[in-house]
Amino acid sequence: MSSLVKTSYSHNVASTAMAMCSSFCPQIPNQFRGRPISSFPSRQPFSVPFKAFTSQANIKEDQLPARIGFLGIGIMGFPMAQNLIKAGCDVTVWNRTKSKCEPLISLGAKYKSFPEEVAASCDVTFSMLADPESAVDVACGKHGAANGMSPGKGYVDVSTVDGETSKLIYGRIKATGALSLEAPVSGSKKPAEDGQLIFLTAGDKSLYDTVAPLLDIMGKSRFYLGDIGNGAAMKLVVNMIMGSMMASFSEGLLLSEKVGLDPSVLVEVVSQGAISAPMYSMKGPSMIQSLYPTAFPLKHQQKDLRLALGLAESVSQPTPIAAAANELYKVAKSHGLSDQDFSAVIESLKGKLQQ
């Protein structure tokens, strides 16, 4: 870890980031400027150093992958790929349902029929899949991306999966001689659209350095967390906290209404105090109206809670609050709310749903 916190090293990394400026992506907004690098101490059980990068670098054509692949054009994958295209990048896309790719094709993206064809035709391929099973199939299946990988190429999985899945994909990609990186994102639909995602990366550092400018097009900050699996673990911990917060917030909204308070005022009070979080002010008003426009599907939040509980079990860490929240999301799923926003978990606390 010591080498990561030395001033000289930070200066070199900053210099490298600033050197990666580009005419290859000429339409990158002006606000994508160099940002300082911070280092933080690591703790068990993931005792690896990590670095936070909090600005977006300018890009140089000769240091950027010329051809970018993107697998999985869903709620998150679509705006991420769109931002790369709008920045001037050469993007090839794939999705199980081709029609979801059509708007990107109209913007200039190429299309391939299988993940392996995308990987074979691109220098770096990103994947954003819904769950571990899909992530493994798209990377390692019959027509998976690994079949198109070779030395000199890179694979970046930005899906939210468990550590074991990340390691499995990493191993399969590495066996081809290519480089691999996990980079799950913190953020939902709107941050993805606005290029404000947070990337939690781990794996091959050289690939991280190569794709950093691309991450900066899609996000507002990026963390390098060391060994493969640490990115997945960080994302699961973050989503475990978020899911528990939403469940508690739902209880508060319903309790305030039951005792005769205006839940809209509660949202204002919470949003101005020490427990303020953007999630409350963004989700609260629609929750009060029993409306749940999907930014982060409830089924994905429940999946992440399940994976986080498995992670906690693997290190014998009690997580009773997250376990209780998980049960509420399971109730909501059982009542057909899987594809609603995860804020629909409030419905599982209403008496009419539990009868």
Estimate the strand proportion.
Answer: 5-15%
Spatial gap, N to C terminus: 54 Å
Give the overall shape, derived from the CA principal axes: globular
According to CATH, the fold-level topology of the largest domain is Rossmann fold
User: Which H/E pattern describes the elements?
Assistant: HHEEEHEHEHEHEHEEHEHEHHHHHH
Structure description:
The protein is an alpha/beta fold and 355 residues long. The chain folds into two domains: 2-227, NAD(P)-binding Rossmann-like Domain (Rossmann fold, 3-Layer(aba) Sandwich), CATH 3.40.50.720; 234-354, N-(1-d-carboxylethyl)-l-norvaline Dehydrogenase, domain 2, CATH 1.10.1040. The protein contains 15 helices and eleven strands. The chain has helices at 2-5, 7-19, 77-86, 102-106, 115-121, 132-140, 163-174, 189-194, 205-218, 230-258, 263-272, 278-288, 298-314, 320-334, 351-354, and strands at residues 37-40, 50-53, 67-71, 90-94, 110-111, 124-127, 154-157, 179-182, 185-186, 197-203, 219-224. Strands 1, 2, 3, 4, 5, 6, 7, 8, 9, 10 and 11 form an eleven-stranded mixed sheet that branches. Helix 3 links the parallel strand 3 and strand 4 (90-94). Helix 10 packs across helix 11 (263-272) and helix 10 crosses helix 13 (298-314). The longest helix has 29 residues, at 230-258. The termini are far apart. Mean pLDDT is 86; it is low at 1-51 and 54-61. Residues 229-347 form the 3-hydroxyisobutyrate dehydrogenase-like NAD-binding domain. This is Glyoxylate/succinic semialdehyde reductase 2, chloroplastic isoform X1.
